Amino acid sequence: MGLPTLPKIYNVHFVAIIATLGGALFGFDISSMSAIVVTDQYLDYFHSPAGALQGAIGSALAAGSVVGSAVAGPISDKIGRRDSIMFACIFWFIGTAVQVGCHNSGTLIVGRVFNGFTVGITSSQVPVYLAEIAKAEKRGSIVIIQQLAVEFGILIMYFIGYGCSFIPGPASFRTAWGTQFIPAFFLVVGLPFLPRSPRWLAKVGREKEAIATLANIQAGGNVDDPLVIAEWEEIMVTMRAEKEAGRGWRKFFKNGMWKRTMAGMSVQAWQQLAGANVIVYYLTYIALMAGLTGNVAMVTSGIQYAVFIIFTGVMWLFIDKLGRRTLLIWGALGMGFCHIVIGGVMGGNHDDVPGGVGNPPNPNIVISVHGGAPANTVITFSYLLIVVYALTLAPVCWIYAAEVWSLGTRATGMSMAAMSNWVFNFALGMFTPPAFINISWKLFIVFGVLCIFAAVWFWVFYPETCGKTLEEVEIMFSKDGPKPWKTKKGESRLEQEIQAVVERKTDKDHVPVIEPAE
């Protein structure tokens, strides 16, 4: 599969903005339910789904994403990072059409599974694509644009859903879901103008094209630029090592590769197990528990998504100045503290409401937090948890997962990491609505404990990858690599390699010219 031959735009930030419209699809589908699940129109039409059925509707996106992320790697290796994103959009259009035309909860679930298949591919391959085109010192700030796109998608779709809640009857949610066509349309239009990943081009033997693309991205087209030469030489060295490593699934576990496989997959699992998506998906439920109703509850929940964007935007400025380990460890501890405060306050200050809170009653919400200080504390720490998440695990887990793989394993490895994310997303999506009914406030204590375990895991197993080339990360996970807790950010050797290239260029007996390998 190939896209039309059109003029290419090599500005990395422009490339990132277009590519991360794939993240906007993710965000749109997340909050396509958030503002709608508490509306009378939704509850009436779908007969007030509760417990496992509401869990199935909510987690259908994740179920499709598990399948999408599972096939994303082979597809991406075959047709390229860019074209795999285009391929995924086909299923988004199908899924959105099914959702708009759904007539019961079963067809709604089917539509969300199709959309999830798209999200599974884009959530794994957009970070791979961005990591492979970005300079080492800017890679975090480029990949974080993906997270910002997710959050903008969440915010925009939430308030579209809120606005559509004033439309009577099923047209309310059908109109909201129909707007999901819009970001996919712009993504499909923009993709043909993006270059292919130079590392993927090198991997499939298109080396002249890879060199030209690398030069266009990194040095305005100058193939003799020292940075271009140094990066190309690193790519070639890594590719030779990977050819020697062989093919098949064994390469994900042999010669220390198991450390990278474990890190890439577990960091995505912990992002879900940290429990932030309980707040992201179901803050409307928490607002109702805290006594907020009607438009106040809806707007309060929507403001959360704006807070999400603001603080991830702040982190965009600093992501490559701070270590990945630091942010992961302290982020997990901060989130754990917030979960435990929320659960503790709920546990000591609530009334049981077996029939469900609200008018009409919502059967998923069976406790009411006392008004005043307890309710305000719950809302405040829910917001604070999102702030900590936006600054730390939300962007860093995707960045770290995109950085740990080698060239030969990156596409499939990132799809494995994304699949780990979506498996736990699905499991928690099925678990959370019944958990709100059965263990209510204790749900937050469970997530608080999991966050503490996550912080310990990060400290013991994850070496620092910030400021290092993708090829250098190979050393961090090698058999003779340093202990994770002894690694530091920004210890890249690329500058020394660039200097070596400059010295060679000044050597009268050696004029370096990049020549593709035979």
UniProtKB/TrEMBL annotation:
It comes from the Eukaryota. It is a multi-pass membrane protein. PROSITE patterns: MFS (PS50850), SUGAR_TRANSPORT_1 (PS00216), SUGAR_TRANSPORT_2 (PS00217). The chain crosses the membrane at residues 12-38, 50-72, 84-101, 113-131, 143-163, 175-194, 269-290, 302-319, 326-346, 381-401, 443-462. Its main location: membrane. This is General substrate transporter. It is found in: Membrane. It holds the Pfam family Sugar_tr. Keywords: Glycoprotein, Membrane, Transmembrane, Transmembrane helix, Transport. GO terms for molecular function: carbohydrate:proton symporter activity. Belongs to the major facilitator superfamily. Sugar transporter (TC 2.A.1.1) family. One of its GO terms (cellular component) is membrane. Residues 15-466 form the Major facilitator superfamily (MFS) profile domain.
